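Now for a specimen:

…
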Amino acid sequence: MAGFRLLVGLGNPGTEYENTRHNAGAQWIEALARMSQCSLRTEKKFFGEFGKVFIGGQECYLLIPTTYMNLSGKAVQAVCQFYKISPQEVLVVHDELDIAPGTVKLKKSGGHGGHNGLKDIISKLGNNRDFGRVRIGIGHPGHASQVASYVLKKAPSDEYQKIEQTIDESLRYYEDIVADNWNSVMNHLHSFKA
């Protein structure tokens, strides 16, 4: 069956990073886990918070790496090896500087665009970039030198609400996203603006 078996939400561990822009992907997976009554548990061998859930009749794995962002690939690689999951069956949900807060884009394959989490996942998957992405817009601070501190800050509340609305909106279509029925979903989500 086509579709994604491993859904990964990127973020940094620890309370000081909760609700920061860089943790938008982790928030998406946390929300999906709540919707599916799936409890995520710390799983040492997978270097992350991990859970199993049935989506559209297919068993899927939810993962939030608890390594730091730049080591996210370690967790993804561990789950892929254990469950024999190919890169094409991996969906990574992450914050995206190149799109505005309140927008979300789906993408198959592609580079890392300087995102350290994606960079590490690509390298740990043997330089395979053919995994799916849900890109949650967080906007850009305007200058490359400001990116590191920008992504690790909490967004101002109006911006944060837009990010949350985007997460909620995209999760309305999670079954189609996971089943890889992207055409209808993309038409809607790519024109959505919180």
